[in-house]
């Protein structure tokens, strides 16, 4: 047997109160799924009292209500700040029902009052046109995790308690959800939790045996094996098994005892570590549930609960001669034909009445005052906690002036600096100024992405053994590294939604691993922004490096710039994409992103030394504009139309574009070349499609309505056509970008393989400006020959030619 039960302190009066709350929540949950009128059964239930489309998920709901009722008991007893995360988000009826019972729902949504009319509206709106979703969505008070897509609840829970020492987040994990990869990795999260400075997570693994049509792995796993698994993960599991579904009193007592033990265990771990941090003693083994001998450095075994209860508990046992309760048949709507089948309608009425609503609600349909006393008060209500509405707690970051880290230049393109190394020094200062509400998340890539300067002021948090050979590991730290993009994303989402700030640094190709998690967060923000009661939260900032054009020691597997394509499918008011071309623009962009709210910001930057084009002031102006003409790089004549526009977005495409413009200036004197750099990709869209979009007149003024545009882009070429599809000069737009070519090779060879190199861009201009191909065929041939020579040099010497490796704009001008 796992963790032994402590003394049961649940008196009969308290037990009755918890049970009545549970029954009330079950009644409201059932009503949401089935009823559109007659909410308190004032008259015999008729078919037209029910909804024509029955949507929702009953199977997990009674278990969620059971847990919620018990958590309220300990919140009231201990005045404990607690957040509730419902992993089985299909149990949305439960979270909504409890928010209504606590009064929060009616406070926010005045049309859903705390009386019979409000109850009727509560029922009608659920999964109904113009109403609310069936999941624990942004519209649901107290929710930070929708749960429509499973696997993220535990990571969200841990993100919410980082730097929240007073908070306990109780997270219910469905046994179907427990089969997902992200959830399986999330069991390791406690190794990144500092008991001295962070809050705690109480995982409640709810085993009801079935998914939508199949049994679940953990529910069928022998208990001894399951206990070994959870202990191996670092938890002290307390098992609560509902042996007899009718003996709810015993279920209440068993769960109450387990919950008491878990809270005592959490406080023992925290008390020991906090006392030690304050220098007043504390046990080395962190309390009664810790692992390892004193001084072993072993991480504590955090308590958790495994609740086994029948799927669809308290629902109909048999329907049409088939078992329903305790089977997969209760997953969604156990009685599916209440409008056309009299027997089903009668069963539904008996089911509703089994909760004895007359004991729970008064003549006006209000929750009886004695039942209402199970609810905590004010912000201690889990549906009203500010930790689930993080904008209430968010304080702006103290941002250091990026100009102190910016690079002064004598002339454009003369200084070669690593943008990420310089950014690392700025983020170091961000961390130093915001030690309690900013963290850097990444899958083992902080130093690889050249941000190692942050280790001058912080370490990577780590709770298991630390060996002498290890570097920058400590029991507390502002950097969280784990080789799971899912965990980094989930932790950051929970951290942001509960009121803090952060950055997710990742290799560009592997950010795709969280495509679906990004989807869910972007959708959350889209809805969240329209709810006046939800306050703005810090933006989710992706910092992507080790990108597609830097493959010196990586290969084809590390090449995929398509996360941008995926992201721009989401609502325009949420998505921002930045491709800073050098160190100073990167600093300016990141300063803007960290100060922003309610966005997903995607920033892509290389980590290798590259030319610095703009001084600090010019970089800031360029980033404010989002794009601009680089007069220093072109050869156009003021007051005259250019002959060709060379446009670029991305650091490597910018180098090749500026170099191509130089080639054309030397080779074709008098050719009027305009160079346009795009740092804010959304500027390419029309203002009617994106808030950052350029009006048509401005776009035509920069890109011209009829001249050839050669566009070198960081990612897949089709995205530029898609963003600019409404523009006047779409037919004149020719885009070069990544086309799935290349493996481990030199940087310039990567550019050549995909056709964004300077020689190819210059050739494209010759081919597209009328008359040039005939007049300058020798130049075109020379450019082709130089491509061939550069390719041969890489094959012979294993590196790019020196004229490419050491190219600077000034050197080209001098040699010209």
TrEMBL record:
<dbReference type="Pfam" id="PF03894">
    <property type="entry name" value="XFP"/>
</dbReference>
<feature type="domain" description="Xylulose 5-phosphate/Fructose 6-phosphate phosphoketolase C-terminal">
    <location>
        <begin position="607"/>
        <end position="808"/>
    </location>
</feature>
<dbReference type="InterPro" id="IPR009014">
    <property type="entry name" value="Transketo_C/PFOR_II"/>
</dbReference>
<dbReference type="InterPro" id="IPR005593">
    <property type="entry name" value="Xul5P/Fru6P_PKetolase"/>
</dbReference>
<feature type="region of interest" description="Disordered">
    <location>
        <begin position="277"/>
        <end position="298"/>
    </location>
</feature>
<dbReference type="InterPro" id="IPR018970">
    <property type="entry name" value="Xul5P/Fru6P_PKetolase_N"/>
</dbReference>
<dbReference type="InterPro" id="IPR018969">
    <property type="entry name" value="Xul5P/Fru6P_PKetolase_C"/>
</dbReference>
<feature type="domain" description="Xylulose 5-phosphate/Fructose 6-phosphate phosphoketolase N-terminal">
    <location>
        <begin position="12"/>
        <end position="392"/>
    </location>
</feature>
<keyword id="KW-0786">Thiamine pyrophosphate</keyword>
<dbReference type="Pfam" id="PF09363">
    <property type="entry name" value="XFP_C"/>
</dbReference>
<dbReference type="InterPro" id="IPR019790">
    <property type="entry name" value="Xul5P/Fru6P_PKetolase_CS"/>
</dbReference>
<dbReference type="InterPro" id="IPR023962">
    <property type="entry name" value="Phosphoketolase"/>
</dbReference>
<dbReference type="Pfam" id="PF09364">
    <property type="entry name" value="XFP_N"/>
</dbReference>
<dbReference type="InterPro" id="IPR029061">
    <property type="entry name" value="THDP-binding"/>
</dbReference>
<feature type="compositionally biased region" description="Low complexity">
    <location>
        <begin position="286"/>
        <end position="298"/>
    </location>
</feature>
<comment type="similarity">
    <text>Belongs to the XFP family.</text>
</comment>
<protein>
    <recommendedName>
        <fullName>Probable phosphoketolase</fullName>
        <ecNumber>4.1.2.-</ecNumber>
    </recommendedName>
</protein>
<keyword id="KW-0456">Lyase</keyword>
<dbReference type="InterPro" id="IPR019789">
    <property type="entry name" value="Xul5P/Fru6P_PKetolase_ThDP_BS"/>
</dbReference>
């Amino acid at each position: 047997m796992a963790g032994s039960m402590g003394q049961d302190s649940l008196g009969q009066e308290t037990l009755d109160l918890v049970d009545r709350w549970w029954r009330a929540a079950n009644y409201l949950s059932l009503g949401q799924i089935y009823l559109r009128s007659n909410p308190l059964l004032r008259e015999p239930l008729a078919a037209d009292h029910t909804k024509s489309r029955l949507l929702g998920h009953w199977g997990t709901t009674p278990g969620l209500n059971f847990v919620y009722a018990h958590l309220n008991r300990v919140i009231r007893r201990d005045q404990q700040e607690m957040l509730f995360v419902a992993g089985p988000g299909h149990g949305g009826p439960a979270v909504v029902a409890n928010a209504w019972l606590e009064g929060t729902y009616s406070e926010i949504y005045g049309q859903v009052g705390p009386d019979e009319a409000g109850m009727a509206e509560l029922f009608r709106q659920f999964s109904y046109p113009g109403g609310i979703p069936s999941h624990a969505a942004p519209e649901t008070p107290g929710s930070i995790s929708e749960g429509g897509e499973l696997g993220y609840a535990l990571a969200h829970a841990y993100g919410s308690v980082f730097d929240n020492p007073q908070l306990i987040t109780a997270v219910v994990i469905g046994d179907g959800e427990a089969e997902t990869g992200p959830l399986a990795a999330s069991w390791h999260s406690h190794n990144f939790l500092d008991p001295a400075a962070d809050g705690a997570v109480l995982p409640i693994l709810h085993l009801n045996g079935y998914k939508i049509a199949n049994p679940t792995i953990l529910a069928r796993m022998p208990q001894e094996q399951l206990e070994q698994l959870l202990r191996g993960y670092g938890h002290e599991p307390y098992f609560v098994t509902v042996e007899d579904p009718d003996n709810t009193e015993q279920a209440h007592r068993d769960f109450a005892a387990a919950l008491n033990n878990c809270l005592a265990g959490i406080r023992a771990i925290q008390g020991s570590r906090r006392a030690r941090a304050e220098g007043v003693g504390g046990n080395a083994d962190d309390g009664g549930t810790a692992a390892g001998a004193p001084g072993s450095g072993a991480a504590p075994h955090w308590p958790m609960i495994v609740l086994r209860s029948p799927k669809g508990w308290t629902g109909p046992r048999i329907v049409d001669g088939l078992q329903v309760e305790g089977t997969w048949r209760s997953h969604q709507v156990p009685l599916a034909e209440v409008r056309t089948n009299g027997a089903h309608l009668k069963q539904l009425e008996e089911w509703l009445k089994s909760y004895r609503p007359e004991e729970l609600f008064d003549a006006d349909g209000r929750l009886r005052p004695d039942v209402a006393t199970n609810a905590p008060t004010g912000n201690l209500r889990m549906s009203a906690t500010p930790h689930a509405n993080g904008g209430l707690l968010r304080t702006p970051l103290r941002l250091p002036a990026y100009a102190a880290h910016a690079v002064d230049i004598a002339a454009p393109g003369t200084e070669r600096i690593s943008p990420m190394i310089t950014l690392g020094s700025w983020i170091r200062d961000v961390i130093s100024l915001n030690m309690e509400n900013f963290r850097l998340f990444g899958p083992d890539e902080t130093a690889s992405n050249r941000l190692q300067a942050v280790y001058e002021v912080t370490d990577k948090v780590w709770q298991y053994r630390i060996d002498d050979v290890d570097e920058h590991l400590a029991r507390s730290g502002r950097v969280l590294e784990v080789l799971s993009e899912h965990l980094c994303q989930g932790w950051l989402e929970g951290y942001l939604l509960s009121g803090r700030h952060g950055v997710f640094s990742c290799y560009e190709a592997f950010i795709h691993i969280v495509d679906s998690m990004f989807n869910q967060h972007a959708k959350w923000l889209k809805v969240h922004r329209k709810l006046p009661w939800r306050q703005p939260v810090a933006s989710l900032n992706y910092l992507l490096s080790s990108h597609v054009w830097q493959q010196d020691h990586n290969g084809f597997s590390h090449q995929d710039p398509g996360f941008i394509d995926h992201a721009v499918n989401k609502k325009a008011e949420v998505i921002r994409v930045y491709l800073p071309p050098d160190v100073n623009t990167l600093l300016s962009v990141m300063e803007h992103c960290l100060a922003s709210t309610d966005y997903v910001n995607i920033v892509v930057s290389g980590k290798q030394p590259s030319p610095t084009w703009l001084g600090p002031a010019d970089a800031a102006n360029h980033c404010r504009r989002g794009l601009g003409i680089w007069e220093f790089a072109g050869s156009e004549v003021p007051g005259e139309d250019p002959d060709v526009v060379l446009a670029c977005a991305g650091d490597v495409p910018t180098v090749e574009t500026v170099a191509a413009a130089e080639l054309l200036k030397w080779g074709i004197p008098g050719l009027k070349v305009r160079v346009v750099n795009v740092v804010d990709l959304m500027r390419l869209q029309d203002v009617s499609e994106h808030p950052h979009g350029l009006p048509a007149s401005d776009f035509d003024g920069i890109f011209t309505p009829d001249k050839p545009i050669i566009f070198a882009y960081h990612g897949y070429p089709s995205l530029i056509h898609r963003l600019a599809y409404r523009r006047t000069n779409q037919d004149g737009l020719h885009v070069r970008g990544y086309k799935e070519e290349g493996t481990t090779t030199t940087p310039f060879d990567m550019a050549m393989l995909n056709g964004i190199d300077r020689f190819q861009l210059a050739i494209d201009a010759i081919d597209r400006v009328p008359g040039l191909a005939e007049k300058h065929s020798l130049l075109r041939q020379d450019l082709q020959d130089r491509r061939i020579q550069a390719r041969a040099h890489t094959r012979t010497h294993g590196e790019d030619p020196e004229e490419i490796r050491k190219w600077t704009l000034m050197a080209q001008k001098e040699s010209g």
